[in-house]
Amino acid sequence: MHVLIAPDSFKDALSAREAAEAIRRGLQRALPEAALTTCPLGDGGEGTLEAVLAATRAERRNCQVHDALGRPRQAGWGWIGKTRTAIVELAEASGLQHLSRNERDATQASTLGVGELILAALDEGAEHLILTLGGSATNDGGTGMMTALGIRFLDANDQPLPPGGGALTELHRIDDTNLDPRLARLTVEAAVDVDNPLCGERGASAVFGPQKGADADTVRHLDQGLAQLADCMAQRLEQDPRNTPGAGAAGGMGYAALAFFGARLKPGIELVMETVGFEQLLQQADLVVTGEGQLDGQSLAGKTPIGVARLAHRHSVPTVALVGRLGEGWQAVHEAGITAAFALADGPLSLDEALSRCSELLADRAESIARLVIASRERGPLSCT
Known about the structure:
By secondary structure, the protein is an alpha/beta fold. The protein folds into two domains: 2-40 and 286-379, Glycerate kinase, domain 1 (Rossmann fold, 3-Layer(aba) Sandwich); 48-269, Glycerate kinase, domain 2, CATH 3.90.1510.10. Helices cover 36% and strands 19% of the residues. The strands form three sheets. Strands 3-4-5-6-9-10 form a six-stranded mixed sheet, sandwiched between helices. Strands 2-1-11-12-13 form a five-stranded parallel sheet. Helix 1 (16-30) packs across helix 13 (358-379). The protein is elongated. 54% of the residues are buried.
């Protein structure tokens, strides 16, 4: 029997690689003769870079950049020399996880550090960029990123705007005279895990601004700023991509990828699976075990277990999900191809206890799944229905 182990991270507890290893340990206890292949995954948010590095054996590179509030930090990016492909995770530089709750300020947070990572990739000779968008602390429409790459965003007095989305209402002119010419040779794919447009009631500011410290008045101001950015860019573009699904990802970084790079937006899990060759791994699998911190009705929008299950189902491979919590509406995941889903808790647990025991609980549930597989095989072959 061949089991493909492909979880996402369990937030605040285990990376995708650590989760995959815990599942492997549990399965091996009951199925010592089984072939077990680990393939950590991510859907574009925090931890996606590590998952791709673990699955592809790409090189990890590090450089000093600025975080969302302009402080220096070391951030990583991935390099696949054979294909001259760089993997840049927004959250490494401008992620919400680097800020304390009282530091969150979407009016000032900038994506400058993401642009600095892209510069490092261009210096290495990158010709293809995979940009993963998720977990951002920002709402600047990618203007910080593009400032690092040579564009100036100017007010009515021809002065550069300060960093952050709060200043964008004052945007009057975009000067790309000094845009890095190497970008013309760079093909960009952007991984997104939402389908929101840039502006409006489903836009970046309204939906994601509150978790980045924005109150109702600030949300309206930020939304006006992104609309002003799109209006200025519309004069330069043949098509206005502000309403493209995914344009609102990561505080408008989806829009920036479309407008400035001509990028292809793709659901994060699909792009990651394509990058790591997941479909080829499925060819040999009899069972897939996936998982992440929570499954609920909203997971159908593009979370890792759903993307895994949909592809596995097309190959008639059953998928079991092991998750920290089954939230409201989780039963809908069966429609997406998940054969069965199990929560990890083995009794009443505090959040701190659940996080500290996550590896142990994950291994124990994986062993239980393996024993169900043994029972099923004794009665007949496991099948996907």
